[in-house]
## 1
Amino acid sequence: MRALVVDHTAKAHLSQADVADPVPAPDEALVRVEAVSLNYGEVKGATDPATPDGALIGWDAAGVVVEAAVDGSGPAAGTSVVTLGETAGWAELRAVPATRLGAVPDGADLGAVSTIPVAGLTALQVLRGMGPLLGRRVMITGASGGVGRYAIQLAARAGAEVVAISGNPALEDSLRALGAHEVHADPAHVERPVSGVLENVGGQQLVDAFAAVQAGGTVVSVGRSSGADSIFPAAALTPTDGRHDRSIRTYFLLADAGEDFSADLTWLAAEIAAGRIDPGISRRAAWTSHEEAALALLERRLHGKAVLDIA
Ligand SMILES: NC(=O)c1ccc[n+]([C@@H]2O[C@H](COP(=O)([O-])OP(=O)(O)OC[C@H]3O[C@@H](n4cnc5c(N)ncnc54)[C@H](OP(=O)(O)O)[C@@H]3O)[C@@H](O)[C@H]2O)c1
């Protein structure tokens, strides 16, 4: 089969190559991939010299089951599915266990649902971890990105007052259209405290987001898109204004290797198919155009998801 592999001689450290077809384990379905989406983490990871040439990467892929799992788990051949994995999604075929595969309604756009696994599941899980959001103020940093766009929509659906942070003022209207009630360039500009933060950027934004949290609130540190370190002034950690019991939590989508994501993948796919969630695709092309898409993501020229159609 053809696949996108790490190639450190290529501009975006990726190229197409012929590789062996995957051999599914008894609990894995074999999926013919029709569309994939790119995430900052894996595209950045491909540029890391420690990632070997030839490595098969790619977390998000959607397609059609061509062979059901032999142990009877998961959907039948012919079912459209969205899949999550730690590797090897950007290829014509992918072997996936039932726990990392969601059914997609007939006729749904597989490119749109391919954006779900990393961005959609991360947003969903982090917001769920904050507890009931009805009437609470929730801040989303890196709001124009893949995770951020899902998070705005899901938080607004859950009844939160959504405070979006984006360094790009031109995006304000589009973020409001997704459900943001306020849009700021920086967490330091937010006037009223928030009860929770989904923090994608790191560096100074993590410090300023923590300063914006009310007593008992939490910042969930999801990403470090800025690449910067966070240096907390001592006063931020020993407040004298009564805002105690605030916390910062880390998060990793695949922290529990055995977690069953199928119900959430299936629900998110149905929401997208019904038009109730906007997948936020800002760039879509054939997978032969992978280099432009990856560079746009790395150079912060992409606001939303990049999707590649496999043909
Ligand atoms: N822990 C996990 O399990 C997990 C899961 C998913 C993602 N992540 C991480 O979470 C982060 C967000 O993921 P994503 O897929 O949404 O990434 P993305 O699509 O690249 O979006 C990140 C957003 O952060 C902002 N940003 C980027 N570079 C920045 C910089 N130098 N300074 C300030 N802001 C910057 C941009 O928003 P504006 O231009 O609007 O400011 C951008 O749209 C990434 O770091 C990713 O690796 C972690």
## 2
Amino acid sequence: MKKILYLTNLYYVAKGRNYYDEDLYITEKLKDHFDVVLCHPQNAEAFEDYVDLIVFRNTGGVNSFKEVYDNFKQRVTNKKLNIFNDFVGKADMCGKDYLLELDKIGYPVIPTIDNKNDLQLLPNCDKFVIKPKDGCDSIGLEFLTKEELLKRDLDDGLMLIQPAIDFKYELSFYFINDQFQYAMYAPNKEERWRLEKYEPTAKEIEFAKKFINWNDIKKGIQRVDACKTKEDELLLVELEDLNPYLSILELDDDTRDNFINNLIVQLNKA
Ligand SMILES: Nc1ncnc2c1ncn2[C@@H]1O[C@H](COP(=O)(O)OP(=O)(O)O)[C@@H](O)[C@H]1O
Ligand SMILES: [Mg+2]
């Protein structure tokens, strides 16, 4: 059997999600197909030379263990460690700058700037969102009126500025490599992480796939987060390409089994 080092933080406290539940479930399923060992990224170095594959999962925001993460990334490159997700993504794993780029090249993302001098590039509106480029879990995200925005010092270029979208709901598309697996949505805007199964149209899957194709990660699990506007348009909120939470325990049995089976196949190939 292939040996897998499964990196997670079982004790990470995330709003509305139990990371440990998901990782206990997944590793319970993997154990019949791989020799699996679980650890926090902080302890990875002692084991990483002895496994066939490292799976990077629900570790939480890497800012909380930045030095450990940077050293790990360095070793992945230097020692050519076999890792899933591949650390070659251009999206969230590198911070939120990619939203500026995708906006510039005309992809359907929430219009995004990082400098108040560019306000004319955003649609006319009077409510805005600012969020740190290296943020996660809504840390540092604020809703501002135009007046508040104009007063705010944002000259350091560390924040993104977007119109506040009054969306109908948020939805997420989950992929293994470039294969669409399932979609979920948050019917209640106040409860971002109480998700239900969503049946996307072919066109909606195509929307999500566009970002997966752009990112071009060969091995890994990605989550495309989008919002559905009042005009029924889909806009990208975030492309989570490092360690997306999967809400796997909220799925129906068939979808979940199918996902796990596909994951086992792809981990075997990786
Ligand atoms: N431009 C926006 N307009 C309205 N709501 C937003 C906007 N950007 C983010 N949000 C809300 O904040 C949440 C977190 O934002 P997101 O960009 O996903 O950052 P994080 O990396 O913190 O998850 C989103 O799920 C959404 O509910
Ligand atoms: Mg998010």
## 3
Amino acid sequence: MVKVTDTHAHYDDEAFDSDRYELLDRLFETSVNKIVSVGCAYDRWEPTLRLTERYPCLYAALGVHPEDIYDMPSDYLEQLERLSQNPKVVAVGEIGLDYHYENYDREKQIAAFREQLILADRLSMPVIIHSRDATEDTLNILRELRPKKAVMHCFSGSAETAREILSLGLHVSFTGVLTFKNARKALEACAEVPLDRLMLETDCPYMSPVPHRGERCDSSMVHFTAAKAAEIKGIDASELINICNKNADNFFGI
Ligand SMILES: [Zn+2]
């Protein structure tokens, strides 16, 4: 079996507290090539970095998720810049906008998104973007700030939005959402994404693909998403995995 690269996981999550190391040992041995683990709250940066020290093929993305911008120190950008000097830190993320839950602070989210995009640009680092119920504002900021290397993560929008994102030069990454029964939109969007801009991820412990919905997700489950994407593209799953692995290597420089 070809090993998969999972470009977006959260191994700092408490869902992995009971067996984190056994699980990662097994994954790297059996089915997983490389992992980018995303530490996306101020207090998750150190735990994520510690994981990178333990596993040569586990890398970190550090940033502040739009839902986690409310409790961080005023010098968080300086701290993020300092930690990003670590060679195992390969991206800023996930950052963006999330208007899903009530009482979000739009202005504050936009400010944090913008300043982290600007930092990534100054550090020449790729960016992982999170956007939920905020497509217009996200696209407007991307149009204005034009990150050189960015990926729209866990994409489940329309084919039309995918085309917009591609026209801005972004990569598009899919999770297990692609395997869901009601995934018609995501399937159409995936068909729009050229193979050289396509990436795969789990967003684990969330977003388990069919047939594991409801279970804890882990990086081995990229295989199910890959099989679906390969079907859409009309190529072998192993060929698709090889292409997506290479895309991830180039994108993150890993
Ligand atoms: Zn995530």
